Amino acid sequence: MTSQRWHAGRASRRTSRLSHCSSMLVIVAALAGCSADSQPDGVTRSRISDPAGDVVVSGLGKDREIVSAAPGNTITDIVSTTVDHGSDVVTIHVAFKDLRPRQYLDLTAYVTTDSTGSRLPTQATALTYLGDSSIDVYGAGGSRCSAATVDIDYDVDPLTMSVPRQCLGQPRWIEAEVRAATMRYGEATIGPRGDAVWEDHAYRTGQEPAGGETHARLHHP
């Protein structure tokens, strides 16, 4: 499957499915600013663990809005997230319980900076499916950051996104909300689980109410 066909099909299907789980995926929640207290200017790196087994799922059964615990889903299960605001690059390193190369995974970071103000955060999304991977980063005005990269190690289960600071407007500080999601594709979409979306939030446990949680504010070194 070509990258173009994969992304076109993914965008169409994901738009349809996520309409059933708005309670889970609320992009504008990142604007709520519910981060930890601002840290001293010298703090440039954050590492936060997330409990294993706290994945949730929606889109099952007749009531698509019901969100249920899905502790058996290990592909989506985030166990730790490290964000590093480096001199030239922002890296987001997410460790999972059990990444698998042929499964679909969508990891998205909503990055708020000192310059975003009332605008939506910059969205960085890494995708992996059938052994292929890609990353899309869109900044202010919809401009695409072609220099961003994604690296996945299926042996030890981390995914790392690297975003040049210039794509974020050379920020003085950053805050990021990080979410992972998986769903079914192809013939697997037929049946009672065809519209299901599994999700894990890096800074929230299970079905706790969404609030745009982020790591502590990280300053440019």
What is the first-to-last residue Cα distance? 42 Å
- Unreliable residue stretches: 1-38
User: How would you describe the oligomerization state of the chains in this entry?
Assistant: single chain
* SS summary, helix count: 1
Average pLDDT, all residues: 79
Radius of gyration: 17 Å
Strand content: 35-45%
Which H/E pattern describes the elements? HEEEEEEEEEEEEE
Proportion in helices: under 10%
Query: In one word, what is the shape?
Result: globular
The major β-sheet equals: 8 strands, antiparallel
Number of strands: 13
- Decide which structural class fits the backbone: mainly beta
Would you kindly provide a written description of the structure presented here, covering whatever features stand out?
This protein has one helix spanning 3-18; strands at residues 45-49, 56-58, 68-69, 78-85, 89-96, 105-113, 122-129, 132-138, 149-152, 158-164, 173-183, 197-201, 218-219. It has 221 residues and is mainly β. The strands form two sheets. Strands 2, 3, 6, 7, 8, 11, 12 and 13 form an eight-stranded antiparallel sheet that branches. The protein has a five-stranded antiparallel sheet with strand order 1-4-5-10-9, with no helix packed on it. Strand 6 and strand 7 (122-129) form a beta hairpin. The longest helix is centred in the first third of the chain and has 16 residues, at 3-18. The protein is globular and about 45 Å long. Residues 1-38 have low confidence and may be disordered.
Protein traits:
mainly beta; 5-stranded antiparallel beta sheet; 1 helix; 221 residues; 7% helix; 8-stranded antiparallel beta sheet; 13 strands; disordered N terminus; globular; single chain
